[in-house]
Amino acid sequence: FTDYLKNLIARGDMLYRQLTRDALNEAKLLYVRALSLLGPLSKGRSISRWEPMSLEDAADYDSTLFSTFESSIQALFAEDIPDHIQGEPWLRLIDAPWFRLPVNTQLLDLWDNLDLRLGNLRNNLTLDGKPLLLALYEAPANPFDLLRAQLAGEGGGARRLGSLAIIPPYRFRAMLPRVQNAVDTLIRFGDQVRSFMEWRDNTQREELLQSHVQELSEFTVTLQDQAIEQAGKSRDALKASRAMVVSRHAYYERLRNEDVSSNEKKIMDEQLAIGILNTVSSASTMVGHTIDAFTPNKAGMTFGVHRPAALAFAAASLLDVAAKGLTIDAERRTQKEQYRRRREEWDFMIEQATAEIAVIDEQIEVQKVAIAAADTSLLQAQKARDQAEIYYDFLKLRATGPGLYQWLLSQMSTLYFQAYDAVLSMCLATEAGWQYELGDHDTRFIPHDAWADNRQGLNAGEALKLGLLRMESAFLNRHERRLELTKTLSLKSLLKDYDPNAALDNATLGVTGWAAVLDQLKEHGEISFQLNSSLFDKDYPGHYLRQLVGVSLSFPVVLGPYQDIHATLIQARSSTLLKPSLGGVASLYRDANELAVDSDIELDRRYLVFNPRLSQQVGLSSGLDDYGLFTLNFDDERYLPFEGTGAVSSWVLSFPRHDSAPQQEVFDSLTDIIVQVRYLAVDGGKVLAAQVEPLVAYVEEQESVRATLSTPLLLQQGEL
Prior knowledge:
Blueprint: H1 2-18, H2 21-38, H3 55-59, H4 65-72, H5 92-95, H6 105-122, H7 143-151, H8 172-258, H9 262-294, H10 309-397, H11 402-438, H12 460-478, E1 483-490, H13 491-494, H14 513-524, E2 526-531, H15 533-537, E3 543-554, E4 567-577, H16 582-591, E5 608-610, E6 617-620, E7 648-654, H17 661-669, E8 674-683, H18 686-717
Antiparallel strand pairs: 1-8, 2-7, 3-8, 4-5, 4-6, 4-7
Helix pairs in contact: 1-2, 1-6, 2-6, 8-10, 8-11, 8-12, 9-10, 11-12, 16-18
């Protein structure tokens, strides 16, 4: 809760420092919101009356106090009980008044801070309590700034890093090396963030690879198990094959040993008998034909002698008998040859089976070696798996794992972002100092879009470094010496028309001029005066970019021994014309009510800068060419009081404790106040000087008229 309130107050302070009417209104709303969240301050709870005491004294108390209090309360009815009460009743103080909640000093500080800020706002003071004088209307926005924001991708709700570019108290040349060192530190932060990102990714990659190795080791173990199983199956297959070959070897060996079986011999004998019978049959036929050839055919009577064909048939039968004999012998020999060839084949098959058995035995031995190797590979794979698991557990449990680098990355990213915010504020302040010293508020060097959230803001420091280098180069090329001028003024002469009642509706003719100034000092202790543009244009018309180098005051007064001047000079407002613009000069004259009503010059406030360093003040002590400094050092790293602000300005000279006797004596002997203004300017050329000349002439004419009208009164007061 307190952090949220502090955030609201810090946001309001940031708006308060912008010193614009819109920003002040928004800051007031934030302060009121924070105050409403705090609620009213209970005065009784904000005072601590606790005193330290020993535990022995704290334990010595009357334990009947609370019960006595309860018995003393009469019966309460619902209508007697209020709807609500302010605060919480502390009944425990009745029983043990020594033990109580401490006073929350942080909340009390928040109340005090809010009361102080709201008081400054209501009394038209700055955040640090200085007088505040704001223009009625702010300078128009630069459309180029809006275009830059649009090109940079900034939306209405975009996050704006870096604080408001407030002009620092140190000069640009003093700020630049410090900001460059800060940017170098930011670059180192960015490199560290990048390193942590790489280390985090590397450690995550190591764990990922090791998890893959662990998974692959499981596959390796499974593959080795399957390889061992496959080797065993192959060995069993080889053994089965050997058994088949052995069986085949025995089979052929048995066939070889039997050679020709009894059935085959019986068949051969039967075939031989059949052949013999066929041969005998053929021989019988041949004999029949032979007999038939030489035996006549008789059938009761004889016809001729013998049959000649019977001899041919007998010859054919003889040949048939010979052929059958040869056939039987050939078949017999063929059968024997087949049996011989068959035996040779059986011998060959036996030899082949023997050789296969030898080969299979060798293969079985080789398979045994392979199984042993597979067992060894399995042990190696299991060992590798166990080691991979142990290493993976180490990677997961090690202190320098991804979790550590992620934590370091988050911490470093937070520091990097905060460093970027701080360094960007310094860069913008340096840029504001560059603009402040050169009078160029349009040129920008520092990019607002250097930070990329989706890339952790990497290379943001390099972008700022480039902007600083370009800024330094532009400063060396453009920081030319300007006109150094001195303007000495007499407040007695400047305020010769001073009339404290001029702003009143019922103003009457009274004391004016220096006498009125002294009366104002004696009564109120302060006097205001303006250094208008016409004062400087009377000397050098056509000048622009008038910036103060220093302002000193001298008091022609009689002082006693060891007596000093006690006064404070406050710059209430300043204006600077950045470019030679007649409309800008006319705007300055209009702000001072020195522009003719019928003037046809078009006002142009685009090139005016108001109050770059508002409400600066110095204390005056010596009273002789007093700059409000112990030692005037133009080479100081910090700006001198009022340095760089507009020479066209408004001032408040105040004397503390004005009603005291020493101060009244100073006022009685004060004859004048000499203001010496040292400032820089740029000549706008003869054309601008000729254009400004009518404005100066109009002011001199009005002063002449006022001098004519006030002469009788001044003669009456004895000032002439």
